[in-house]
Amino acid sequence: MNAVSASRHEIDKDDRPGARPYRVHVAQRIQLSPSFIRLVFEGDDLVDFGTDGFDQRIKLLLPLEGNRWGDPDMCSPQAIQQGSWWERWCALPPKDRNPMRTYTIRAIDPQSRQLTVDCVLHSNPGPAGAFVQKAQPGDEIFIIGPDEHSIHSAEGIDFHPGDAKNLLLVGDETAVPGIGGILNSLHHVSWHGHGTALLEIPDPEDIAALNQTEGFRNAEELGFTIDWVARSYPHDSKDSGIERGASLVTRMRTYAATNQAMLNQRRALSNGSSTQPIPLESRALEDVDVDKELLWEAPESAIGRPFYSWMAGEASVIRTLRRMIVQQYGVERSAVAFMGYWRAGKPEM
């Protein structure tokens, strides 16, 4: 499976590290909507960029003040062959470590040497948000991403639906690129089933533009319903908006009420007998302090299950949804991926 617009010839893979640095520059900066910017990067080395698709994570290494790089040789052939980019970055004095932030591949076309990343605009941006807001064609950064020549090139993918034909995707604006990537990849592998995506975004004017981007515009063909809610209301409204995550919790309850029988099924037995409700002891959850710990649980396989869900966004909201779907609605933990992408008021962990 890949999410590339152009086909690729069969590539020989070996046991080299799954990710490597790529030196790229901004080719285009596109304002998709009030809350989203699309950056298209170009670089000759992107011909080797991995194309495994779904929600694959990458790292953006951002320039220090004065466009300075603590380790300008990170992309040297020797460093790439050794797979030592992380060790080299950690060995730098803190003042020389370029800021690193996590994003999701939105599209990759190795033949055109282009990588697309969609970014959320924030009112109080950190290093990544500041770069996105000011980015101009020609600006250089390093991207840590999958190496197509590695047998480990699929590292960083958390969406593992197995053969499930009933899918639920849930997320805030930070999950929109991942959900778009998932839908685009499902389209490329000709997946068909029943799916629902519950999305919460900042501005109602985001919706029309996002619905025209890759993955979302083909969602109906896949059997997906896309349900958007904006936290703010139109500018001529007297309402001030809704609390972050509130619409996701409310719509999760509605979804569960409509699909309770499906949610409370366990995997099909190996002898092919019918699915059974899962026992209460399988619903136990340890508490996660999202202010101190990373909430990240992505089971590798959901083979044999009728249902699979992927949830990502602000960590405290995802923790609430995690409790709901596992403890209240009886879904096995191994059939749901939970990712706390960020924590309100906290830097990236």
Q: Got a strand count? A: 13
Weakly predicted, low-confidence segments: 1-7, 268-273
What is the helical fraction, as a range of percent?
10-25%
* CATH C-level label of the largest domain: Alpha Beta
Radius of gyration: 20 Å
CATH homologous superfamily annotation of the largest domain: Nucleotide-binding domain of ferredoxin-NADP reductase (FNR) module
Shape: globular
Please identify, by name, the CATH architecture of the largest domain: 3-Layer(aba) Sandwich
**Mean pLDDT across all amino acids:** 88
Largest sheet: spatial strand order: 4-3-7-1-2-6-5
Question: How much of the sequence is in beta strands?
Answer: 15-25%
- Major sheet description: 7 strands, antiparallel
- Helix and strand content put the structural class at alpha/beta
Distance, first to last CA: 30 Å
Number of helices: 9
Architecture overview:
The protein is of the alpha/beta class and about 350 residues long. The chain folds into two domains: about 20-145, Elongation Factor Tu (Ef-tu), domain 3; about 165-265 and about 285-340, Rossmann fold (3-Layer(aba) Sandwich), CATH 3.40.50.80. The chain is built from nine helices and 13 strands. The protein has helices at about 75-80, 85-90, 125-135, 175-190, 205-210, 220, 245-260, 260-265, 315-330; strands spanning about 20-35, 35-40, 55-60, 100-105, 105-110, 115-120, 140-145, 165-170, 195-200, 225-230, 295, 305-315, 335-340. The strands form two sheets. The chain has a seven-stranded antiparallel beta sheet with strand order 4-3-7-1-2-6-5. The chain has a six-stranded mixed beta sheet with strand order 10-9-8-12-13-11. α7 (about 245-260) runs parallel beside α9. It is globular and about 55 Å long. The two termini are about 30 Å apart.
